[in-house]
Amino acid sequence: MLCSYIQHPANNGITTLREFAHFAVVCRRCDDAPCVVSCPWKALELEPTKMLKRYMMRCTSCKNCSRACPFGVIYPETIPFVISKCDYCIGRLRDGEAPICLQSCTQGGIQYGEFEENKEAGLFEASDHLMVKTAFKWERAEEVPPKKI
After folding, report:
1. Is it the case that residue 4 has pLDDT exceeding 90?
2. According to a count of CB atoms within 10 Å of the terminal CB, is the N or C end of the chain lower?
3. What pTM was estimated for this model as a whole?
């Protein structure tokens, strides 16, 4: 997909969107967060919602978080060293104009507009300007005590 980020023409802002979606949908939101603890640069943070946030200016792409994740859900390729950032084209589009990523996405994986979270429809808020649609979202279940034998 193409990206029109004005400050860096070679930017691939889609990488950032994929990371947000990945953390929102695939991350299991561990209480002890070994991925966060393993980062020597404090580039990962667990937000109050248990959503992972990566501070890209701190991240050196050492992949410690990927190795520390007990579920293998932080894929090394989702933690690139070359930083791309999506600015959601805020303030850069004329009325009725669609972002170039939307125009170049032939599979309909990106939609642009105003949306509200709707858990029944699988639409979840990942950040202030990003919604993720999925058929599945991790929810922390009540811990079931082990059966006594």
Report:
1. no
2. C
3. 0.56
